[in-house]
# Entry
Amino acid sequence: MEEKGFEFMNIENNKAPNKLINEKSPYLLQHAYNPVQWYPWGKEALNKAREEDKLIFLSIGYSTCRWCHNMNRESFQDEEVGEILNKYFVPIKVDREEKPDIDKVYMTFSDAITGSGGWPLNLLLTPDTKPFFVGTYFPKRSKGQLNGLIELLEKSAEIWRIDKEKLMIESSNITEKVKEHFISYSSGDVKEDIFKDTKEGLLSIFDKRNGGFGYRPKFPMPQYILFLLEYGHKYDDEEAKKMAKNTLESIYKGGIFDHIGYGFCRYSVDEKWLVPHFEKMLYDNGLLAITYIKAYELTKELLYKEVAEKIFDFVIREMISKEGAFFSALDAETEGEEGKFYVFNYDEIIDVLGKEDGEFYCNHYDITKEGNFEGKNLPNLIGYDIESIDDKDKRHLEELRQKLFSYREKRIYPHRDEKILTSWNGIMISALAYGGKVFGNEDYINKAKKAADFIITNSIDKDGRLLSTYVDGESYNYGLLEDYTFFIYGLLVLYNVTKDLVYLKIGEKLNDDMLNLFWDEKRGGLFYYSNISEELVLRPKDAYDGATPSGNSIAALNMIKLYNITSNREFIDRVEEIIYTFGRDINNGPLGHVYMVMANMYL
# Structure
């Protein structure tokens, strides 16, 4: 792979570093020269808080997060903020992608306390790590409706000084209420009409005009599309098929898809899919590739095959390491400006392509002198009947795209987070192997094998434990449930495609380990982190689907696959236990448990 100049966030090398300088995480390294004397999460920081009887300021984010960059520039690079944090608090920085268990636990508090969450996630904790305040982005000082960080810190430090007992009681009460209401699970049998309920629930939030679900911001929600494809096929439901196909076409036509360099951004800030949040994540592209492949497999419509292949073109070009594993993400911004890498002026297109070709391209891709995004243009096909483009025009548009791609390549690239995460690699391995089989493409299968072999070689320790993170030649952190389940899923898809028993045997072994490390013997289901991981203030189970599937649902899908291969009834018994453990939750909120609903469908 040709190396490119991916931008790394500016680091003030003229200043003395803090303790993050010895970390591997790109996100932590972005804060290594802050005046805030950050600690990584670990014994040193937690012991310091207890020994010095100080509050903990916990800040969680990731290296390609737009608002994390903003808060770093505005608050954490500020000397006054640094002075207050260093004097009265133990400041701890966490990369949510490196330590998703910590993020999961404290995001649970955010959901419970505020009803929402996001990144950067900032919390105030007592020395025993129990939170009493949570928020997301804070400017240095209050602005309009936004509370200022300095005011928050000064007020909290004063309350801790004069009435720490009140904060200790409050934080304990919050923790107990969260344990009682937010990490409790309702078991029971899943009702017989759950599939119909799920379809009707999706119909009630379907955007008939623009495709997709809900209003804005809009996420592609591949689990919804996959369910509708499966349901429509199984029950010959044309309405379900139409919702799925409409959404697949709409998100591809929108600016959320990069029509110059390919790949999907995380979500759209508007209901039409025009303006994306520009970061590109490995897991989004893997899950969407799987979805488009499934759509092609069921319908044989060429558009879906073309989109999946474009996703793979992007991933193989931009996201693959020299060893063959996959990097995590591309940033939303370059040179401090979100989307700068992706947008064009009308005159710029004309200059690059010439007047006749430029106007031809602009007419197809909604590029105008006025612009469609903050005075500039995001190439998109919204409102355009792509079926009306004949083969000759398609070939010509592709030639013009290649010219624009070559022109765009000269720009400063977004920062690329080069962590290799076991969980997200599992998703991309399964996507490539599946695509290779359906499309008859051996290169995709070989790419999947190479990535799987890398994880097997580098991210399983001498005791056979799966590790979650690989950076700069070293794997570390015990794997969480999603690492086990997503990687096992990738291995089982690879086995189904290649019939190589090595992948089946390793998948079976890791599945056995997963049950030993994560299974709740008292109440059933699988915990988010294992019994050999650090014990946190909560130990949740992962049943609710977010941007990625829940660990319990993929565990169930894996064991259905293992039963189909081995005919071992014990796998089905475990699947039934998992579904029963969360049964009433599934009944009450099927749209939050769609992968679990699909596991039940496959049973």
User: Anything to note?
Assistant: The chain has three domains: 19-181, 195-336+416-602, 342-408. The CA atoms of residues 59 and 122 lie 4 Å apart. Residues 342-408 form one domain.
